């Protein structure tokens, strides 16, 4: 218990507290007062103030004229360097635009983050069905076309974790039975595409396909979200798979579909 | 010099060191090894390792299969909540697309961050001139169309800081004389648009106009970057100003142009 030892022990908690402060911001709570920040993080007001002052000085957080704090431009700038975010988005965007334009529907791109997915981009065609997704927003892996693809290719421990935990129901058609989900995931792996039929909203279905990197690993998923009844999912699959393959090629994926996960 | 006092004093340095680690990442250096991180931040290897482990656990940084660190998806997600980044981008994008499509040239959107600008979006029309900019990238305020607008409406101390410091030269036509720049800035304020004629590259000129928020404050700038000689800047100005006004309206700006900065 030397002074040095104590200092070493402090590093973690202090950085973690600062990051927890950033966690308080969300799409629902994009702006927070100091006392809201303290409340949402469970930090004493003085600690929250000290940390937010540091974060403001660097630009992670900005203070508006109204005294409220919001996520700062510096974080947006830095976030633009994330290869799985902006880098992937820029490579995929032209293909998503083609997919949305040709079909008139929604083209989506998502990656897995732990046991959830994060939407990286969404391009709405002229006759697109309204969807619940938001770029930068999270969603369960079990319900959507992109989610089923990402879960099907996730490490076994992630699959067990997701299938073992509570599975959210969105509609009467959401598959929440782990055994049925396991069958769906096996089908995704063998056919190369996923179908989520009215599992998120009753007016929409989505068809997803995997995007692979230069090592042949699944790093993202593309989907087309269409009005239920407008097209047979099996008719959409070749379109979505072609788009996913085009993005994979842009990422340097090998031309032959690997058999590995 | 109580224990508590020492702890309070630690908060700043520890958080600052963690943020300095994030600063090591840039468009030129999107991936870094641990020793590169230590070298770029000037931190001892053990400290860098401890901090990067914390940042990885939270998702600010990700470690690739090759052992290199890169900006993590969590930062991209959080950055998407920045009102001056993603929020502004989403509001402005349709107008920028119109501007690029109608003219065939580059439409750009930027905000001021301290004494520099950050490009928030760039939409390239079918016959756009190659430009040096990158979304999320920084640039001097003195040379570009967007920069001149942002500098013209910046607080006096920022203007003094920029005009008093060294002013980068990009071409033989870059204006680097503070007195001439002051005249240019006054013209931007009185005419409502800026002209940067071959100041960044010798084949391009840009025309910029201010974007205002609901308080009438200038929060961003739009520009059109065209091939030099393809159009008279004064002919482009109404187009760019109209686009900037449309974006301002989308942000809730009052219809009459305010006389305040």
UniProtKB/TrEMBL annotation, chains A, B:
Gene Ontology molecular function: DNA binding; DNA-binding transcription factor activity
Superkingdom to which the source organism belongs: Bacteria
Residue ranges constituting the HTH iclR-type domain according to the UniProt record: 12-73
Alphabetical UniProt keywords: DNA-binding, Glycerol metabolism, Transcription, Transcription regulation
Residue span, IclR-ED domain: 74-253
Natural source organism: Goodfellowiella coeruleoviolacea
Single Gene Ontology BP annotation: glycerol metabolic process
Name the UniProt record assigns to this protein: Glycerol operon regulatory protein
């Amino acid at each position: 218990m030397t002074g040095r030892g104590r200092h070493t022990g402090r590093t973690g908690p202090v950085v973690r507290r600062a990051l927890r402060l950033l966690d308080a911001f969300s799409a629902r709570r994009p702006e927070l007062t100091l006392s809201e920040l303290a409340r949402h993080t469970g930090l004493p007001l003085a600690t929250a103030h000290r940390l937010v002052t540091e974060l403001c000085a660097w630009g992670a957080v900005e203070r508006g004229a109204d005294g409220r704090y919001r996520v700062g431009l510096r974080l947006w700038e830095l976030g633009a360097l994330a290869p799985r975010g902006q880098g992937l988005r820029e490579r995929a965007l032209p293909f998503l635009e083609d997919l949305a334009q040709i079909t008139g529907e929604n083209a989506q791109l998502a990656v897995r983050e732990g046991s959830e997915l994060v939407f990286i981009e969404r391009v709405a065609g002229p006759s697109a069905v309204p969807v619940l997704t938001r770029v930068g927003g999270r969603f369960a892996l079990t319900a959507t076309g992109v989610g089923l693809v990402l879960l099907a290719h996730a490490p076994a421990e992630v699959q067990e974790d997701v299938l073992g935990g509570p599975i959210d129901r969105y509609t009467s058609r959401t598959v929440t039975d782990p055994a049925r989900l396991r069958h769906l995931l096996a089908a995704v792996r063998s056919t190369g595409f996923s179908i989520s039929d009215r599992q998120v909203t009753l007016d929409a279905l989505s068809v997803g396909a995997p995007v692979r990197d230069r090592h042949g690993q699944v790093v993202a998923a593309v989907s087309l979200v269409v009005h239920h009844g407008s097209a047979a999912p099996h008719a959409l699959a070749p379109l979505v798979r072609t788009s996913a393959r085009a993005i994979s090629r842009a990422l340097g994926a090998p031309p032959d579909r690997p058999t590995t996960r």
